[in-house]
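G.,

No rush on this.
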Amino acid sequence: MKMEHMLVGKRIKIILDDDGTGKPPELPPGTVIRSLVGTDRVTYFVVRLDHPVRSLRASTKQDWVLFNLTISNRYKGDSLDTLIGQPSGKLVTVGIANVLAPIPDDESVLDFAKVEYFALGRVSRL
């Protein structure tokens, strides 16, 4: 098993730094529920927040709900696997997308049509 897949089942905190609105919402902690590989060969992690958060969607200026998110490394050389074995609170910069449609359990490749990238942020293990 790859080290980064060891994140599945772990509790994390996502901090939104920039979602295009100027006032990103504060997110509750969440749990990494699975990993997927994108068509770009990047590993994405699906995070289910402890409760849904209503916020402004910058691209449409309409409200939407954040509950299931995907996160991935933002910068080359950064890796979410550094969260394992590190003290809680170590931050890694990530790109964040909202899951817009259910991702079936038998899908192992992330269909980008089912998510919308919306923010830059940081993540830490709890």
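When you get to it, here's the other one too:
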Amino acid sequence: MGNSSRIRLSIINDTAKPYRNHANVICFAVVIAVLKSVTFALGGISYDERAFVYKVGSNGEKTVDIILKNDAVFKINILKIITSCPCVSARIERTGIAPGECGLLTAITTAKKFGEIILCTDEKQSPVIRISIGIPP
């Protein structure tokens, strides 16, 4: 009788494995879908590369506007803005962004490309946000 109960348990365990694997496949598919998204969420601040607004002035000056959104439940302060090149300047509309609110980051350059903008924040989990800005379309 002891042997038959062992066999029964192994049959139950074998039938449970496909369901467990099915759940793993679903979780993997969800992770892939999230990673394929173009919206970046870093710490409590998120931005969408598809929403970058590029402008070129008559003097050849290039500008890009980036909307930053605070997805956290607490206010996040931008403490410092660093650019990867001295030919790029950046400014933010307001340094403190309340939960659910947005702030406008503007980068300006006369070079061919923008490079990277680094935001230093007071957010504990991810205090540094790196935004790569490519060549304007």
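The first strand starts at residue 39 and ends at 42. Residues 42-133 form a domain with the Immunoglobulin-like fold (CATH 2.60.40.10).

Enjoy the weekend,
O.
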